[in-house]
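Researcher: Please predict.
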Amino acid sequence: MALSLRRKGPSKFEQAADGSMTLIEHVRELRNRLFWASLGIVAGLIVGFIISQWVFHVLEGPYCALDSSWIDGKCRFTVLGATDGLLLRLKIALWVGLIVGAPVWLFQLWAFIAPGLHRHERKWAYVFVAIAAPLFIGGAVLAYFVIGHSLPFIMEAGVIGDTTQLEVTAYIGFVTSMIMIFGAAFEFPLILLMLNFTGVVSARRLLSWWRVVVFLSFGFAAIATPDPGPFGMTLLALCMVALYLAAVGVAFINDRRKGRGKEIYAGLDDDEISPLEDTREPVGAGAPIETATPIERPEPVAKPLPIERRYDDMT
């Protein structure tokens, strides 16, 4: 008799008593989600490879605005290795592929996480993702603008001056790093909103941090911007402060909608005594208690008379 190796059903390790997915099923679903996400990234990589030349021309715009970059009527870079041009094109194609394929791999990621979230958590996840994308694009545009205005000053203020050519790989890495830093900086208000919407901090508490936020914004801008002058630093810091104030405004609206700040201890300091409501009500005498049957008291028992004895009774 031939033995059949085909399984007739899931084993006891793959069956859950409550009907939920088991560990094996979660692993299989993760494998399928990663497969489709990888296909989306590969499709985006192909598109990115096709348009990589156009993307490169956009990224080289700030450098080509310099007079020193033009030789024989063309904007030229310095290339150190024979394969640097091809590797740079693949790197640009990968970045573009991640952006173009974002709807696919983000959907697969969301489809794997969403079953474990509540309905209100899913709603706020949609809102935060919808806000995060425009904020990141705004930060990327600001980074490109700052690089275009700060690069001439950086080149002229150097020891060599503005008569040198830049190495193409280092330049593209510099531009993409600035775009990532500025885009991540613009996501800072979302962190504050998440803290407020989850009930960790209130809008008044966020507003009380304005001095710290202004100081940290200017400190971060001073480190992140390539321009040692005040233009790029001030622009980035003011944008971060404006986004912080906008986030605080949304937090106030959310607190008012949820009725926060109306608690009995909301307007008190940490070392202040809470007020007590002194509303005294007069208390009158209570009604007498009437018994159903009268209480019968037992009659007192007479004490026995003492016995008188004479002296001759002792004999």
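Model: The two ends are 125 Å apart (CA to CA).
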